[in-house]
């Protein structure tokens, strides 16, 4: 099967069709990234009345989507806490995870990180965040939404 796939890729490349295929795939990933961003941008900051978008905790550029297979995607989010000593960075990461798990209509895997250089205890917060993200303890019955959202 790999041989056939490799041959097809080579034929497409030689025929000048691979660029069109790559462009379609790239556009699809950009659309998925915008879909993800639309879900997370309205989450409210745990300490302030503003959304994560209004505080520049999340931006369109902080979301990356990669295709893993048929209708399965890897979502990578790198958020920036409002201040370097933010004590709620882990909570923000968990809010991102739960909101995406509840709202995205497609199969996905999540990787959520704190943007490098934006937190004073980045390594510790990153470790805590990854430990929390690895647990499946946030499953609640549908209809009970503990996340604050402006939408």
UniProtKB/TrEMBL annotation:
<keyword id="KW-0159">Chromosome partition</keyword>
<comment type="similarity">
    <text>Belongs to the MIP18 family.</text>
</comment>
<dbReference type="GO" id="GO:0007059">
    <property type="term" value="P:chromosome segregation"/>
</dbReference>
<protein>
    <recommendedName>
        <fullName>Cytosolic iron-sulfur assembly component 2A</fullName>
    </recommendedName>
</protein>
<comment type="subunit">
    <text>Monomer and homodimer. Component of the CIA complex. Interacts with CIAO1. Interacts with IREB2. Interacts with APAF1.</text>
</comment>
<dbReference type="InterPro" id="IPR039796">
    <property type="entry name" value="MIP18"/>
</dbReference>
<dbReference type="GO" id="GO:0051604">
    <property type="term" value="P:protein maturation"/>
</dbReference>
<dbReference type="InterPro" id="IPR034904">
    <property type="entry name" value="FSCA_dom_sf"/>
</dbReference>
């Amino acid at each position: 099967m790999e041989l056939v796939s490799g041959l097809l890729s080579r034929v497409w490349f030689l025929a000048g069709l691979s660029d069109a295929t790559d462009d379609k795939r790239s556009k699809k990933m950009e659309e998925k990234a915008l879909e993800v961003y639309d879900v997370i941008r309205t989450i409210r900051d745990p300490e302030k009345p503003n959304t994560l978008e209004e505080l520049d905790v999340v931006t369109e550029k902080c979301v990356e989507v990669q295709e893993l297979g048929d209708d399965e995607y890897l979502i990578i989010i790198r958020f920036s806490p409002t201040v370097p000593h933010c004590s709620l960075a882990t909570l923000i990461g968990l809010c991102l995870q739960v909101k995406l798990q509840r709202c995205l209509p497609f199969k996905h895997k999540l990787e959520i990180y704190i943007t490098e250089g934006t937190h004073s205890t980045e390594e510790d917060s990153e470790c805590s965040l990854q430990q929390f993200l690895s647990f499946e303890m946030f499953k609640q019955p549908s209809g009970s939404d503990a996340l604050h959202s402006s939408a």
